[in-house]
Amino acid sequence: MQSNLTKVQYFYGLRPGEVISLDFHHEHTLVARGAAVWVTRAGDPADYWLKPGQRLQVEPGRRYWLSSEAAAQAQLERHVSRRFSPLRLLSRWLAGRRAAREDISCPAAA
């Protein structure tokens, strides 16, 4: 059985002491890479320290701030449904091109 989900990933590099803010419009999973990442979010009194490999679900519609004491990466993952695989789209495009060539090469019946 073929999965209709594909993983979209974004990577943000964090320099020591740098703070970046992110606004999300979709649900994502935040994963710390390389070093611990500090996360705080609007409307939440708690702060989160994610050790490398730890995950945090982020909610759409909230602003998040990320920082780290060492060089780190914040990886965002999101699973999205895909309607057609790239191979399926390519085969449909090729079939359309083939059909167009056949229409041009066939003499029109009068």
Largest sheet: 4 strands, antiparallel
Rounded to the nearest angstrom, the radius of gyration is 23 Å
Number of helices, where a helix is a run of at least 4 consecutive DSSP H or I residues: 1
Alpha-carbon distance between the two ends: 49 Å
Strand ordering within the main sheet: 1-8-3-6
Q: Beta fraction of the residues? A: 35-45%
Q: CATH topology, anyone? A: Jelly Rolls
Q: What is the CATH superfamily label? A: Jelly Rolls
Task: Kindly report the average pLDDT value.
Answer: 79
Helix content: 10-25%
What is the H/E order?
Answer: EEEEEEEEH
Shape estimate:
elongated
Name of the top-level CATH class: Mainly Beta
> Which architecture would the CATH scheme give at its second level?
Sandwich
Low-confidence runs? none
Give the beta-strand count.
8
The total number of structural domains is 1
Structural class: alpha+beta
What does the secondary structure layout of this molecule look like, with pairings?
Blueprint: E1 5-14, E2 19-23, E3 28-33, E4 37-41, E5 47-50, E6 55-58, E7 63-67, E8 72-81, H1 86-105
Summarize the structure.
With 110 residues, this protein is an alpha+beta fold.
Name some characteristics of this structure.
110 residues; alpha+beta; Jelly Rolls; four-stranded antiparallel β-sheet; elongated
Write up what this structure looks like.
By secondary structure, the protein is an alpha+beta fold. The protein has a single domain (5-105), classed as Jelly Rolls, CATH 2.60.120.10. The protein has one helix spanning 86-105; strands spanning 5-14, 19-23, 28-33, 37-41, 47-50, 55-58, 63-67, 72-81. The protein starts with a strand and ends in a 5-residue tail after the last helix. This is DUF2917 domain-containing protein. InterPro entries: DUF2917 (IPR021317).
